[in-house]
Structures are given as structure tokens and as C-alpha cells.
Amino acid sequence: MKISLLVTPCDDHNLALAAQIGVEHIVSVYPGLERKTLETFCKRVEGFGMKVGAVERLIPRLKFIHNEPGRDAQIDDFITLIRNMGDCGVPVLCYSWMPDDDWQRTDLCVQDRGGSLVTEFDITRSPNVPTDTGYARSTRSRTSVEQQWENLEYFLNRVVPVAEDAGVKLSMHPTDPPVPVLCGQPRIMIHPEEFLRQVKLVDSPANGVCFCQGTFASCEQEIDLPAWIRRLAPHINYVHFRDVVGRGNKFREAWHDNGQTDMLACMSAYYDAGIDVPIRPDHAPTMAGESNEYPGYHMQGRLFAVGYMRGLMQACSARRLDESDRRNQ
User: Fold this and answer.
1) Which of 80, 101, 137, 255 has a CA-to-CA distance to 319 between 20 and 30 Å?
2) CA 299, CA 68: separation in Å to the nearest integer?
3) Lowest-confidence range among 65-79, 173-187, 313-327?
4) What pairs with residue 281 in β-bridges?
5) Sign of CA dihedral 302, 45, 48, 15
6) Per-residue pLDDT tens digits for 210-266
């Protein structure tokens, strides 16, 4: 597994911190359609001894999710991004099928351990969107579940062959919060079962899954995460490592070591399944001295998360070596 990090803000200080804690891959938010922009960012990151391992977040997508006017032009832009990534050697493009804004919460400053701040979702309250998403509340007409699946198949048929040719792996992120309807809009890509359907729409190594533990952990129906990691293993090409407390219509983010999930069991499942992909901490708490301008994406909590993840990874590696030694005796 390759520890990756989305750095906010992406300044030299934070890139240096990432390099110092052993991060291998930096994640880029949507860089636009000029290849030079992505190329320049890749060179900047390489100057700190790391590589750009993925692009995700803020990627324009709502026209092709809803089959609105301009759908094909927006897919063409997505294809341009794929080709630019291939030219720059960036291997993973993480996107979602969230049909409204980006991920949503109803409170962005709930107190957690020691007064740290986390986000919360409570379906009885109006959704709030983190300030860095760049999305405005949509007033579009509702798109049914069946229409969304048809639109997804159309999209995948267009983009997967391009991704194969470019050497880029597409990684579908689950819908967050994982509720079937939000503000009247039906939603898909919630339960892991739907990801089995997604990868069958276009059978290709380039049509893969971002296994976001926190989203799956907050589904209304309790999900056996290690079992699903093993079941989806052939299709997992990116991992978001985070945790929550609660599920369904009400949950909050949690420290990586203080949520409801057996995080060691999940990490062990990746190792046991032979999964070796970029893995990044996601939605870490905001700590003392941080502004909470970017809920879930400030730096200090993610530094803690990387250390916690590295400890779990070393424990898994040591266990596998010990088991191998015993077999060879």
C-alpha cells in the first residue's frame, strides 16, 4: 500500500511535512484541462521526493450524471483530463456519481476528542456543503435511479477505453452521505453491491472502485468491511481510510483510532487480498489552532492519521512475515 495525502492548502510547507512523514503520493484536486498545469504540479511534487498518484474532487460531472444539455461536451472534458493524466504519469482518477453537490454534512463543527472538530450528518437538518467544493445547491429536476444507471453505462462506455489506452485507472467513490434519497433526489452507488454492478457494466481493469471505508461504515445497514474488501479486491484501485460513529440518517466523523470500525482488520484485509494501491487518510478532525475553513481537510489531523496508518501497515507486514517464516520451518 502506498500512503497518499491530499494536502490543504497545497503550499511548500505542507508538502515538506508530507515528505517528512513518509508520504509517497500526493493527490491533486481537479487541475483543469490544460496539461501544462498538471505537468507543472507533478514537477513541483517531485521536487519534494514524491509523486502525484491521483486526481480527485471538484471534477465537473453533473451534466453527464443527469444527461443534461452539454453532457457529451462534459464527457469530452473528462476524457481530456484522462489523457493529460496519462501523459503526466498520474495513475488514478477518483470520481463519484453523487447527483447533487459534493459530499454533504449538516454540521461542520461538532466537537470530538479534546475539543477537536468533526463533521456530522443528520437527515432531519438541512445539508451543508464544505466551503472548498465550489458547488452551489442544485435546482435541477430529479433523475431517477434507473436513469442514473443508464447514464453511468453511457459514460463508462465512452471513457473506459480511453482510460485503458492512457494507463489510467478510474476509481468510483461511493455516494456520501450514503442515503437513498437526499433533498428529494434519489442516489446510487451507496452499498458495495452496487459496485459489483458498476464494474460489470464495462469489464475492464480501468473501471475500478475507490473503497471509502468511512462512507461504507456509515451505511444504514451494517457492512462487514473486511469481507467486502476481500470481495471487491480485484476492482479496488484506491482507498480512503477513515472512520465514523453512527450510521444511516445520523453519523459523525471520528478520529481514525476512535471510531466504530476495526481498522486493523480492514488493513489486514487489504494485505491478505494482495491489494497494493494508493491509500490516503480522509476527513480528519480539525485540531487546535486550525481555522476549520476546510472541514475534514486540515493538515494536523491527517499527520496523526498517517502515523496511525503506518503503524497498522507495519503490524500487517510483520504478521505476514511471521506467518511466512512459520510455513517455511
Assistant:
1) 255
2) 37
3) 313-327
4) 241
5) negative
6) 999 999 999 999 999 999 999 999 999 999 999 999 999 999 999 999 999 999 999
Give dist(CA 79, CA 158) in Å, integer: 8
Q: What is the pLDDT of residues 271-310, one digit of tens each?
A: 999 999 999 999 999 999 999 999 999 999 999 999 999 9
CB burial of 60-80 (b: ≥16 within 10 Å; e: otherwise) equals: ebbbbbbeeeebeebbebbbe
- Domain range for 62 is 2-328
Domain count, the chain: 1
pTM for the model: 0.94
Q: Which cell is 32 given?
A: 483543469
| Count of other CB atoms within 10 angstroms of residue 58 | 15
- Residue 104 makes CB contacts below 8 A (sequence gap 6+) with 121, 127, 128, 129, 176, 177, 182
Name the strand (E) or helix (H) holding 76.
Answer: helix 71-88
Q: Which phi-psi region, left, alpha or beta, contains residue 292 (left: φ > 0; alpha: ψ -120 to 50)?
A: left
The Cα–Cα gap between 180 and 189 comes to: 9
The DSSP code sequence of 18-63 is HHHTT--EEEEPP--S-HHHHHHHHHHHHTTT-EEEEEESS---HH
